[in-house]
């Protein structure tokens, strides 16, 4: 049995305090970014973190480590939504996405630029198309491709 819950990746200065679910794990990343793994879902967490921090953020709901429903948002309202492991998402009955893969790529690159990061289009495309054993690892690859380094 794998992980099910919300993962937030945000530029916040203090440990995450929002929501009514426990923080299972929190990791500091370079330039003030944090990876926060929650024991469940916190509806509206993405919008809340972006509003509170004034910085872009990404949220992913992971289901049994098999699939991640990923949304990203910036303070200006730029957003993208995609599934990591899309075939698995379809098997679980996830609704169709409103953006094509090329539109998701363009939006993800715009999100990265607005966050002040540098992302290589080919690396982001590869991360969006990747399929690791665990969806959390695929998400980590996407985060890295978007320019958020694990190195503090």
How would you describe what is shown here?
The longest helix is centred in the last third of the chain and has 14 residues, at 101-114. This protein has helices at residues 45-53, 86-91, 101-114, 121-129, 135-145; strands spanning 5-11, 23-28, 33-38, 57-63, 67-73, 79-84. A hairpin with a 3-residue loop joins β4 and β5. A six-stranded antiparallel sheet has the order 2-3-1-4-5-6, sandwiched between helices. With 152 residues, the protein is an alpha+beta fold. The protein has one domain (5-145). The protein is built from five helices and six strands. The termini are far apart.
| Rg measurement, Å | 14 Å
List how many beta strands DSSP finds.
6
What general outline do the C-alpha atoms trace? globular
Find the structural class using helix and strand composition.
Answer: alpha+beta
Short précis:
This protein is an alpha+beta fold and 152 residues long. The chain is 32% helix and 26% strand. It has a 6-stranded antiparallel sheet, with helices on both faces.
């Amino acid at each position: 049995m794998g992980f099910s819950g919300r993962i937030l990746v945000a530029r916040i200065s203090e440990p995450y305090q929002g929501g009514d679910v426990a923080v299972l794990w929190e990791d500091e990343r370079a330039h003030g970014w944090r990876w926060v793994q929650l024991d469940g879902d916190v509806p509206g967490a993405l919008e809340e973190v972006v509003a509170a921090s004034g910085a872009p953020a990404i949220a992913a709901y992971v289901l049994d480590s098999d699939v991640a429903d990923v949304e990203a948002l910036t303070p200006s309202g730029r957003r993208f939504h995609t599934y990591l492991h899309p075939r698995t998402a379809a098997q679980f009955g996830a609704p169709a996405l409103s953006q094509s893969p090329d539109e998701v790529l363009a939006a993800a690159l715009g999100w990265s630029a607005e966050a002040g990061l540098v992302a290589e289009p080919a690396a982001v495309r590869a991360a969006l198309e990747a399929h690791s054993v665990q969806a959390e690892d695929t998400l980590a690859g996407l985060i890295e491709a978007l320019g958020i380094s694990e190195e503090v």
